[in-house]
Amino acid sequence: IQLLKARCLTGLNQIEESIALFETVITANQNTAISAEASYYLAELYFITLQDYEKAIEYYNNVKKEYNRSEFVEDSVSRSSVASQILQYNNPDYTIPVEDLVNQQFKLAEFYIEVLDNPDSALAVYNNIILQEHLLKDRLDSLRYVLANFSEPDYPVYIEDIQPDSLTIFIDSLDTVADTVKTLSREDITNQISRLENSIIQYKNDFIPMAHFIKIWLYVNSYQDTTSAYQEFTVLKSESPQSRYTFASDRLLQGEQAELITYTQKKNREEYENAISWLERDPIIALSKLDSIITQSQHEYFNKALYTAGYISYFLLADTTRARDYLDNLLANRPEQEMVQAVNKFYNDGDFIALSRVELLSDEKTVPEIPDTTKDQKPEEKVLPVPETKEELAEPEKELLLEADEPVEILKREKMIIPDFFKRDFEVIDIELAVDKEGKLNALSIINPAAADSTLLRRILQNNIQKWQFKPAQKDGEPVDAKLLLPLDLSNE
After folding, report:
1. CB of 444 closer than 8 Å to CB of 433
2. How far is CA 230 from the centre of its chain?
3. What does the alpha-carbon distance between residue 213 and residue 40 come to, in Å, rounded to a whole number?
């Protein structure tokens, strides 16, 4: 009853009486759920009504101390974090880098939105972030003035004990020396200017566009105010036309899912995807489109285009000379480690694996075109028990045989080179291999319905598996033609 009365006094704005009663309840019911609840509502009073954030943090932290199983513990932790962020926002630590200071402010705005459901306060924080650019520029001008008037031997410069990336600057007169100032060298000032210039670039390219974007998001989702959203977008597009936040805002306003890429990145991605879309229909056209990307060394998909062009040339066109040009160029461009590992499959101890590796593909007399038996197959009299789980598919002993006493045996199995988009789309597939009595691959079919229509995937698998060595199946002690159902985990290739 006393706890309820204290809450009512808060509602009646009888603050002193309410605080006194809350404290009485806490003292009289120590280490109980009641004292924990009283601590929570007293913290709320300090937080919301009095805006005494230090006291609020004290009582929020007291909730768990009084009763760690209280239903108010989780909310107390969240709101204590909010109060801490507000304290940092109101009393910023100017000795920390600009990036850290601004990230604190972004975090506070998120608390206002997600924890306190207070978008108005969040908007105020974002507006403050945008306006801080002027403080940075004023600071930079001040430092440049100091440097321009710097004369180390005769006129030492005294500056407040500030850090190079702070948002404020205080310059004392050249003839005043206070206890709190220190002498900076020309090198110190020059380094501060350099770091501050980099901070301003980051501020302009990232922090301000991000603040505009989140404001647009708030206008659309919290206020349903499309007029203000479009006004904000006009400013953003005028100041940062190529920013990823501008593109994301554009999509948001069109009712589409926001995507944090720039217009240029979107264009680059579409160019690469268009080239890939031609692989099934015409690899020559795909290669031509990739060549167009490769002429642009700054293209975001430059390395991917080189790798894909090398792959097409090597496996689909059997042109190892051209493939090597692409892949050598790629390695010279120092791609990420994952791509280096993929490219290294084409090399043996630093030497490119040339035509000897693909002679089976280029010599039509040696290897006839393998027919696509995936389509128009007549039903077999003998039904294969197809594995159902990925674990079953991954087990070699699950390989299955048709019409033989002893199965086809794989004597040598080389790791295959499979494009990433096939690994992503199909991951695990079943293939059927027709191996003749001489141990040669005569036909290959893809069993999975989703992948069965992919002529390109079948051809890539065919080109890889041609290099394997098989021991033919046996029937009555004699080698015979046979079929082998083989599960493939493309993600491991």
Report:
1. yes
2. 28
3. 35
Query: Strand 347-348 relative to strand 473-475: parallel, antiparallel, unpaired?
Result: unpaired
Q: Does the structure show a pLDDT above 60 at 367?
A: no
Say whether pLDDT at 489 is over 90: no
Residue 426 predicted with pLDDT over 80: no
CB 43, CB 56: distance < 8 Å: yes
Distance between CA atoms of residues 397 and 487, nearest Å: 10
Q: How far is CA 422 from CA 285, 295, 330, in A?
A: 19, 26, 21
pTM of the model: 0.49
Tokens 């060549």 belong to 291
* Exposed / middle / buried, residue 369 (Cβ in 10 Å: 0-12, 13-18, 19+): exposed
| 10 pLDDT more than 60 | yes
Dist CA 283 CA 456 (whole Å): 9
Cβ atoms 101, 135 nearer than 8 A: no
Q: What angle do CA 31, 33, 35 make, to 5 degrees?
A: 60
**AA letter at 346:** F
H/E segment holding residue 50: none
Per DSSP, 179 falls in state T
The pLDDT of residue 395: 41
Alpha helix segments (H runs only) across 257-336: 263-277, 283-294, 302-311, 320-332
CA-wise closest residue to 40 among 15, 18, 71, 9: 71
* pLDDT of 229 strictly over 90: yes
Q: What share of the chain is helix, strand, coil (3-state, %, to 5)?
A: 55, 10, 30
Residue 315's CB is within 10 A of a number of other CB atoms, namely 22
SS3 420: helix
Instruction: Categorise residue 322: left if φ over 0, alpha if ψ from -120 to 50, beta otherwise.
Output: alpha
pLDDT tens, residue by residue, 56-73 = 888 888 898 998 889 999
CA distance 444 to 433: 5
User: H helices within 50-118, ranges in order?
Assistant: 53-66, 73-90, 98-114
